[in-house]
């Protein structure tokens, strides 16, 4: 039970609602102005795990003695009082609706009461994310947290074995473990296990100290680990002194600065596994260790969950639900934080933007590092990359003197950066593109239902699963979210990937960088991806760009031949991506965000600089006022990136503490030493406006994408462009010098685009009307 801190009363009291609340299906009682009851740890209809932190507010003249009833039966929750306010955790909630009531009886007069309906859900979930996946590999053992608990004898889920004899004793479909407490100490480089029973008295020789409240104390961290929603969560806080007796002493509230950091990890995964806890297994990774060690040293609590690692799964509804439930556990175990700041890179950054859009109040601020607006719309240009690289390589194979032997020239069509000197992982020689170095192999892991990570088979074998456990799984992002996208009769989920009408290289043609013959050849031969049911296994060594899964025509180069077909994306899948909150639309960003990124364009990294401005462009287009809540920081690749993230944390802490944006909450960029190159609203001029380049824009050039070269905007959110006839395009300025196209050229263009060409000014066919 967390003790009440009077200095924190104001922040908590501001959260209270002076009326009686009701959950889903519960009747709202007549409010009593002398008494109110509020749940602090979650929304009333989204309680999980059988307990909830609640607060009772009473008028100054209300009697002190109160009684509590849960579903009509008296209970005695451990409440801590602060004046006329009481707070504590109520346990023993049954699944479903529960009525919590508080009463007092006034001497010689009418008593008062307040009630609240709490709808409780199992700690293993789900609440709103939909049916849970099976098969689903439990990985608590890899985290050093032991095997999951047996919850069925029906053969469903993860095999569990007797630890002595090794015989099967049951299965676990929930991957649950008992809550555990572990301690670690910091030695200046990383965290090592700490024995709380002996090491406080005889500290390890390499134990470092941290300054807390002006005093130097041992840098020891208490970590609570458990499972929520089938994923492993951890809560980490400073524990410089031994806390009480027993196996599970409480958190040291005196060491907590009353602020919470939610740590989110990156990647793009296809589910069917639990992931591992950040404090265990491989531990904290690289820069993650540098940042978290310095965050904890300042007194922040750090909350994380393997369900908020996008490399474990990329179901944002599930990620949102897991974060909500994990934060609920934190509030119940520790207390209500003054505010919660998200930090995470890549997929961990995407989660912050989507949480801010889909679940207001979950985070109060965010530091998205190397972010994208979302990963679903990112598949639009990424799916173009292998198509284009396959075309270029075919041209070079046909003619070694082709202009496409110049790797840097491919940027004219692909938009993203290319280099004649950066090492190419496919050829092993100098010269490559972001499409290769950044995105090689990404498409099979998203679109190919028969391509699976071979590590799944190894893990399943090691854990004693049947050999065919994954036989029915279709390994695409869309199938991974089948409850959102649906499936056809063969079990394949529809895909929104579409390139009908896309005129690759249109911008290069307009600038005179390629001729009309090359423009026509590219678009006749680029082709498209097959339907999911037609995919075969990707053979990466012999077929690096997965051409076997492309729709191509052998006679495409011939003006009289058959152009390679284009693929029409599924409209229902596009609508589902919006409806499920997997697309960042820019319509909502009510919290301050500092988009931090190293400038990685020279190394052709997938985390390209354009993405920060894609977010801003969506904000400016959908909700201009919300754009003020996002600022963009770039730093040279050689700069200390952990320092930038920590600086951003300090700025956001000040912002939330003071209730107003500080001077540091502004666009800026930094050189390799960390010195500010430029700061202020004009720093990035020239990227999203027509003004001369600002100092940051000049220092860190922004590249494009294949779709931008084809006419799309930097927003990058058009799944399916609206179309116009080729004849109309010939007369409306689509081609700056349309007279260059003779009658044969126009006929070829008509055959390439029988349905018409993209008219990006007319909008997106795949975007539902209400978005």
From TrEMBL:
Keywords: Signal. Residues 38-765 form the DUF6351 domain. Pfam families: DUF6351. It comes from the Bacteria. This is DUF6351 domain-containing protein. The keyword Signal applies. InterPro entries: DUF6351. Residues 1-22 form the signal peptide.
